[in-house]
Amino acid sequence: MECFKTQKHYQTLLQASPKPHVLDDYTVGRVFEVFGRQKDDLWLFEEQLARWKRDKLSVGQRDEVDRLTEQVGRCRTVIDAILSLAEQLKQGTIEKVLAKSDLELGLEFLLSKRRPHH
Question: Which of 31, 42, 105, 113 is within CB 3.0–4.6 Å of 86 for a Cys-Cys bond?
């Protein structure tokens, strides 16, 4: 399981979080589809690793199984973060912005200017 690419996807989504309107519904939907499927498949890796742990392994093999177990755990954490971020981003896609009236957009803009920035 390659977690490095998953981490890169998360970083890309993080960059979009201050401006979710750069994303469209299709792109965010694809994130849910792809990473939801990956999350659903993690049990396969976990089950295989658990089976290998029950076998008689050499020290090197056990170390590798432990390393892979940690990696799957990290992947689960990153995938959960991606899905959570996508849930937030879907509220502000370009389609959601275009569906708002000028009045709604104006009020949101004015209200955001009044909030203290940290």
Answer: 31
